[in-house]
Amino acid sequence: MGERKIWTVRDHPELERIMKQLKFESAGIPLLRTKNSMWKPTTTGLHLFGLHATRNVIDLEGEALQAFLKREVIDGSLPLEPGFVIVRCEGKVLGCGIYGKGGLRSQLPEKRGKPFRGKLYAENL
Questions:
Q1: Of 109, 83, 82, 81, whose CA–CA distance to 95 is shortest?
Q2: Which of 3, 49, 84, 97 has the fewest CB atoms within 10 Å distance of its CB?
Q3: CATH topology of domain 5-123
Q4: Pairing of the two strands 57-59 and 38-41
Q5: What are the residue boundaries of the structural domains of the chain, listed by start?
Q6: Burial grade of 66 (CB within 10 A; 0-12, 13-18, 19 or more)
Q7: Which helix H or strand E contains 47, and what residues bound it?
């Protein structure tokens, strides 16, 4: 079975006509995709809508933030429900994590974490 995605696109009166004329696979911004029969939020989707979330959100700082960006597991009991988590730093959405047995694991694409790792390194000199 192939990967399924849910996309969002702005409504436009000419959208259907435009889509029929052009040859492309999809249009819009991917919000969710299936992963192991669960819907996983995309990093882009979280950047757009994650500021409005009220559950399963955690703000990380210091060593925990560094560990998350290095894709290390953050051990311990956290005030989260098992499943996908919105991870923020100073109120800004970084991306997605998954919380369950064994702690919090980063789901942030490696390339997306690089700019933050460089900033953290400079701040800790």
A1: 109
A2: 3
A3: Nuclear Transport Factor 2; Chain: A, (3.10.450)
A4: unpaired
A5: 5-123
A6: middle
A7: helix 43-49
